[in-house]
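step 3/5: co-fold with pyridoxal-5'-phosphate
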Amino acid sequence: MERLNTVIQAIIERKAKQQGPLCAYVYDLDNLRVHTASLSASLPPSVRLFYAVKANADERILKTVAPYVTGFEVASGGELQKVRRLFADSPVIFGGPGKTDEELAAAIEERVALIHVESVWELQRLNWIAARRQTTVRVLLRVNLRQAASGATLHMAGKPTQFGIDEQHIAEAIHTALTLPSIDLQGFHFHSMSNHTDEQAHLSFIETCLSFVAQAETTYGRRFSVVNVGGGVGVHYNEPDRQFRWNWFSKELNLLLRRQAPPHWTVIFELGRFIAAHNGYYAAEVLDLKTNYGTHFAIIRGGTHHLRLPAAWKMNHPFLVIPIDEWPYPFNRPSLHNQRVTLAGELCTPNDILARDVPCARLRVGDIVLFRCAGAYGWDISHHDFLSHPHPEFIYLESSM
Ligand SMILES: *Cc1c(COP(=O)(O)O)cnc(C)c1O
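step 4/5: write tokens
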């Protein structure tokens, strides 16, 4: 569970100390530590949990989760270098649809544990790069499953996308992998969706992955050792007090693996959103309130250049209002009561909207809007320097250890 009161208190204290309007990301590292530790502890022993760095690559987040994950999933040479600077020896797995020769070579140099290969051409290129270094690389083939689960916000498989290898072409890829001397085919990678909130459907998806590998073992008469089921566990953005029922899910997962995963398999999860989302917040002060053509707008010090997710997904980002009673001006304070409000940012584009027509009990200029579930794909996916407004502050809640 989130520590909302602690976060609100920290923001009120920060506001009291500062001059201009407040705009800050708050990362509750103490609670992130507890959350990641409990995720990791609940997983069956044959499962390895990796953190997908792209969800939030803040160094302090990486350092906080590091003790509780097996390692990191990186999706670029840049992420790889970032992880290696911080953790010289952590296991790293490397994926992504467009890897350059330089990135593949760096992955070998940096002793990446597994490379997720996304096409037959990439397989050949990797083999060539590894052969010239007189080494072999451990590889998973990324499968674009025909029967990937539906119901998530983003789907990378089960339909035409740039990800992975079409299940219809996988036989050729396996065949190629098995004949290339510098490729050591360890298994398969199935990351197929993001923001999946249906626990039962996510389990069925994992079952599909397991069946695929079992079938491949029969077809090729050999054992594989790694089944990477990817990430994709979701957040209820429209209902932030509700969470993916991880305890139920991990119990069922335990049973499923006991039934369907032979002991020579290691199952990998590479979670991003579900690790990072709930302990990150974005706080921004209301600069103006106005009613244009019947719609009430609050304009905040900040916007989608800091938190692009709601604009990208055309959704209302969940928020609450932190009342700030202090009012320095000698004239009336603009405010609205029991109205629907649209939260807009400070950018000069009508697309800078974080929530539209949302009921609000009271909002005044000078109050602070606190966006929840902002720790994953928030700051990291935003266009920070559009319009050259100052960046937010970053506040880390971390008791000294
Ligand atoms: C982004 C990504 C993840 C993490 O996905 P979440 O939905 O954040 O859990 C895992 N694996 C791959 C290959 C990814 O691209």
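step 5/5: annotate
The pocket of pyridoxal-5'-phosphate is lined by residues 52, 54-55, 73, 75, 95, 191, 194, 230-233, 270-274 (CB under 6 Å).
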